[in-house]
Design brief:
By secondary structure, the protein is mainly beta. The chain has one helix at residues 96-99; strands at residues 2-3, 13-16, 19-29, 37-44, 50-56, 61-63, 66-77, 80-85, 91-95, 111-117, 120-125, 129-137, 150-155, 160-164, 172-176, 181-185. The chain has one helix and 16 strands. The mean pLDDT is 86.
């Protein structure tokens, strides 16, 4: 379905030059002279990059129907990541290209959101925070406090993050998947 420029709002997914974009922000401009236009900031759902585009008043923009599905991570084999669709329990295989840096925080049975357009994978979205166990780090020294510095620690997914000095191997911590930063100890 074609959208007019008045229907372009934040959260709408559109098809531009064959790529699927999600509109992040719009600015409707009505100059004193000439036709109205919309300046839109959009995120490419496949590559993740953000770009600005201007749509003129007479343009029709194609709406993209993006399907959002709950997936549960199962395992990796080679460069293919295997997930289970939580509704119909079918296996969904996604290439490492679409996973990107998210692979650092994928752990068994983690629930993620998958975005699909015409059954093609666009990307996955991890939960903002996950709880992981420290598999290796240098031992903490008695008297270290949270504000005295950080040290590298390997978590159960294989990624290495910076943690406070008082964290030890075997501790369960909360990690922000958007930044890869330590948040707090988990219970």
């Amino acid at each position: 379905m074609a959208l007019s420029i008045n229907e372009i709002k934040s959260g709408v997914t559109v098809l531009v030059d064959g790529d699927v974009y999600m509109v992040i922000e719009t600015q409707h401009v009505k100059p004193g002279k000439g036709a109205a236009f919309v300046r839109a900031k959009m995120r490419d759902l496949k590559r993740g990059n953000i770009q600005e585009k201007t749509f003129r008043g007479d343009e029709k923009i194609e709406e993209a129907y993006v399907e959002e599905r709950k997936l549960q991570y199962s395992y990796v084999s080679g460069e293919m990541y295997h997930f289970m669709d939580q509704e119909n329990f079918e296996e969904v295989t996604i290439s490492q290209d679409y996973i990107g840096d998210n692979k650092k925080f994928l752990k068994d049975n983690l629930e993620v959101l998958g975005y699909f357009y015409k059954n093609d994978t666009l990307n996955i979205n991890l939960p903002n925070f996950i709880e992981v166990i420290i598999t290796h780090t240098e031992p903490g020294i008695k008297g270290d406090t949270a504000k005295s510095g950080t040290k590298p620690a390997q978590i159960e997914t294989g990624a290495t993050i910076q943690v406070p000095l008082f964290i030890n191997t075997g501790d369960k911590i909360k990690v922000d998947t958007r930044t890869g930063a330590y948040v707090e100890r988990a219970a």
